[in-house]
Amino acid sequence: MEFAKKGMRVELNRRKFMAGATAMSLVPSVGRAATAPPTLEAKPGRVRLITAEFGDYPETEIWGFGGGVPGPMIRARQGDVLQRRLVNNLPQPTSVHWHGLRVPNAMDGVPGMTQDAVAQGGEFLYELPLKDAGTYWYHSHNQSTEQVARGLYGVLIVDEEQPPEVDHDVTIVLDDWRLSKKAQITDDFGAMHDWTHAGRMGNYIHAHLAPQISTVEQNQRLRLRFVNVATDRIMSVSLNGVAGKIVARDGMPLETLETPEVMVFGPAERADLIVDVTAAVGETVQLVIHERDTGYLLEEIEVTGQHAKTPRGPVPRLPGNPIERLTDLKAARSVPLNMEGGAMGGLRQGKYKGRVMSPQELVREGQIWTFNGEVGLPEAPLITAQRGETIRIPMQNNTVFPHAMHLHGTHFQEVLPDGTFGPLKDTILMDARETREIAFVADNPGDWLLHCHMLSHQAAGMKTWLRVT
Ligand code: C2O
Ligand code: CU
Question: What is the pTM of this model?
Answer without folding.
Answer: 0.92
